[in-house]
Structures are given as structure tokens and as C-alpha cells.
């Protein structure tokens, strides 16, 4: 399996090793399960996302991340666990970022497009990095950026 992706996670799964560690692993194919080498919630969320991409090979990053967050929410609600998942994923052609939480508040996420210092670019950050026309992403939303810098926000 060869996925060329960038994955970043800012957030947490409450008491991860005691709560969703096993339920996440139970949803993975054997190949994805065997690829996990660590014990962090971030690596397991990534494994769940890769599993989604493997299960539905023609799924967009947006659809795969959306389904991953829906699965996490279902698992968290059944175990009464809080989590937050600001995730950024890119395949080099598109970028999808989430500002998402279940049972807790989501970390902040901001975006900026076509700043005079960074023309023809979209910047995404947890907090505004400098004075500029930063926009806050709404809670429980996906920010999708295409190669042509077309930017779209979808709420759950």
C-alpha cells in the first residue's frame, strides 16, 4: 500500500488507551492494523482514515475524513468519551482540514487566502500567525482547498 499523504492532528481522545484504543483497532483491516507502530491517538486516527481510503478507494480526502470523524463520533458516544480532532490531510493535490469535537470544545483553526505577503496561497493555523485577514473555521466543519486555491467550508 502506498499512500502519499500529509497528516497532522491537533486534539485528543479522552483516556485514549483505556477507551477508544481497542475499538478503533477493531475497525481496521489486518493490513492497516499491522502498520500501526505506536500508541498515540493521532496514529490511530490516521489508521482509521487510511482504512477508509482503502475500503473506498475512489473516495475523496474530504469524504474519507468526514467518514473517519463520523466513525470516531459513534465510538466516542457509545463509550461516553470526549475527543477533539483538528486534522489536516493532503495528497499534494487537495487539502482538507477539520475543526471538530465531540463532547468537548474544538481547538481553534484559522485560514487566510491571498495575503499580500503570501499571494496565491492558503495558510491554515491554530491561531493567526500575524496581522491579516484571518477567518475562523466554524466548529464541526471541514475546510477543503483545491489546487486552484478554490476554498470551501462544509459543516457537519
Walk me through what this model shows.
This protein is an alpha+beta fold and 156 residues long. It has a single domain (6-155), classed as Aminohydrolase, N-terminal nucleophile (Ntn) domain (Glutamine Phosphoribosylpyrophosphate, subunit 1, domain 1, 4-Layer Sandwich). The protein is built from four helices and nine strands. It has helices at 21-26, 30-35, 41-55, 61-79; strands at residues 6-13, 83-90, 94-99, 101-102, 110-115, 118-125, 135-136, 141-146, 151-155. Strands 1, 2, 3, 4, 8 and 9 form a six-stranded antiparallel sheet that branches. It has a three-stranded antiparallel sheet with strand order 6-5-7, with no helix packed on it.
Poorly predicted regions: none
N- to C-terminal distance: 30 Å
Count of folded domains? 1
CATH-scheme architecture = 4-Layer Sandwich
Give me the CATH superfamily. Answer: Aminohydrolase, N-terminal nucleophile (Ntn) domain
Please give the share of residues in helix: 25-40%
In angstroms, what is the radius of gyration?
16 Å
CATH topological fold name: Glutamine Phosphoribosylpyrophosphate, subunit 1, domain 1
What count of helical segments does DSSP give? 4
Q: Helix/strand/pairing class, anyone?
A: alpha+beta
Dominant shape: globular
In total, how many beta strands? 9
Strand content: 25-35%
Mind summarizing the main beta sheet?
Answer: 6 strands, antiparallel
Overall average pLDDT: 94
Give a nutshell description of this structure.
The chain is an alpha+beta fold. Helices cover about 30% and strands about 35% of the residues. The longest helix has 19 residues, at about 60-80.
